[in-house]
Amino acid sequence: MHFPPTALRARLALLFALGSGVLLVAAAGFLYVNLNDELHTAINQGLQARERDIAADVSQGLVQVRREEAFAQILDTDGRVLGSSATLSPAAPVLRQDELRRIAGRSVFIDRDVPGLGRKARLLARRQTTGGQSVVVVVGASTAAVARGQRHLGLVLAVASPLLVGALAGGGWLVAGAALRPVRRMTEQADEVSLEARGGRLAELSGDDEIAHLGRTLNAMLDRVEASVGRERAFLDDASHELRTPVAILRAELELGLLSAHDPQATKAALTSALEEADRLSRLADDLLVLARARHLGQPTNPREAVNLVGVAERVRDRLAGPDGPRVDVRGSAPPCTVDAVSFERLLVNLVANGRRHASSRVTVELAGPTEGQVILTVADDGPGFPASVLPRAFDRFSRADAARGRIGGGTGLGLAIVDAVARAHSGSVEAMNGPPLGGAVVRVRLPAL
User: Fold this and answer.
1) What Rg, from alpha-carbon coordinates, does the chain have?
2) Is 446 helix (H, G, I), strand (E, B) or coil?
3) Which CATH code of 1.10.3430.10, 3.30.565.10, 1.10.1740.10, 3.20.20.450 fits the domain covering 300-448?
4) pLDDT digits over 101-155, tens only?
5) Per-residue pLDDT reduced to its tens digit, 210-226
6) How are beta strands 118-130 and 133-142 bridged, if at all?
7) How many angstroms separate the CA atoms of 425 and 420, rounded?
């Protein structure tokens, strides 16, 4: 069983009550002690003033107590009464012998039961000299009123403090409820938000406080989540569509090969076409796997190292070169970059292969930099360039010109998406355009220099 409250509102109210209780106890203690000191200081000052008046008379040789003095005596060192108030017996000294011996040239306060003053009384005694004779001046006052005031104050504090703590706790409960009411509404709205029902958002509050900022932040997060889920759904839809076509063709070619088993030429043609579709499926699966792992490219499986980009570009050129097709030229120079060599080579292969697929006769790979701490890789071709409808979404997955979507067309439509993912994973950027240096498509990648 959990005794502490689990609701935030209850915890806040309890914390408010505990904090106010501690402050009230501290304030009550300070008030009690301070008032007690003030009252006793007032009694002491009053006794000292009365003692000074009598001492002034004694110093002038007048060894007697004034009539208006309610409680005072003048004693010699042996304890005999030399002068006394009318309310005191002249034969009964106020001080005992042990108390007389304690008195020297300083004032001595004595708290005890004193006849005539009650059980709560305070005496002030001081030795004085007159005419060569030492006398002791004693004045007294009752402290019963101070004791009663202390008791009453303690009772009031003991009763009022719990009531005040309760009132403050109740106020804290109400304030916490009012402050958390928008959070409760947001919680209820968040329960109704579903990925199936697009566009669900929290009601944003006006103002610039923490809760309003929380609502705006949560809505921004929901925007990002919805956009991400939308991209993933589109990716799955496109992947399903892209996979369905080659699988259907592969199945049809294999069935055709079985039906024409008596005709070797037809069987060979069917198997050749099936092999092409299998190769297409293999490339599509590889590209999909790379994109599925794109989120992990920021921390690639292969370690990053300083790579000579010119050497990688020349290796890719030699790898893709063939007796037919556009020529690939590598130009310029650049300092090494710290990259995942495998991912970067994949990026360059995709760019060069895409350029050769659409070029008329020539593809250039140009390296330059560092410029503002970046190495610039530019791949250009002399083909027709990006169609105007494709250029704004050139790096989206499965983004291709309509003419390239046929079976005889280009690649899987994932090459530039992989290029973008690899560049971002290396804290770089990529852009697509048409124009110089060859008048066709241009893809420019920027990577941080070593």
Assistant:
1) 50
2) strand
3) 3.30.565.10
4) 888 767 888 888 888 788 888 888 888 877 777 888 888 888 888 888 888 888 8
5) 777 777 787 778 778 77
6) antiparallel
7) 9
Q: What is the pLDDT of residue 444?
A: 93
Say what percent of the chain tops pLDDT 70.
82
Give strand ranges (E) for 28-162. Answer: 72-76, 81-84, 108-114, 118-130, 133-142
Report d(CA 144, CA 353) in Å as an integer.
106
Round to whole Å and give the CA distance between 263 and 19: 95
Q: CA geometry: angle at 40 spanning 35 and 44, to 5°?
A: 150
* Euclidean distance between CA atoms 51 and 126, whole angstroms: 8
Alpha-carbon distance of 231 to 240, in angstroms, equals: 14
Please answer whether residues 121 and 140 qualify as being in contact, where contact means their C-beta atoms are separated by less than 8 angstroms. Answer: yes
DSSP per position, 10-24: HHHHHHHHHHHHHHH
CATH class of 210-290: mainly alpha
Q: How far is CA 212 from CA 177, 183, 187, 289, 369, in A?
A: 16, 10, 14, 41, 46
pTM, full prediction: 0.47
Angle at 66 (CA atoms; ends 97, 126), nearest 5 degrees = 35
Q: Which residue has 């012998």 as its token pair? A: 97
CATH number of the domain at 10-148, please?
Answer: 3.30.450
User: Of 227, 70, 233, which is closest to residue 142 (Cα–Cα)?
Assistant: 70
How would you class 340 by CB atoms within 10 Å of its CB: exposed for 0-12, middle for 13-18, buried for 19 or more? buried
From CA 232, how far away is CA 259, in angstroms rounded?
40
The dihedral sign for the CA sequence 312, 318, 321, 327: positive
Query: What are the domain boundaries of the chain?
Result: 10-148, 210-290, 300-448
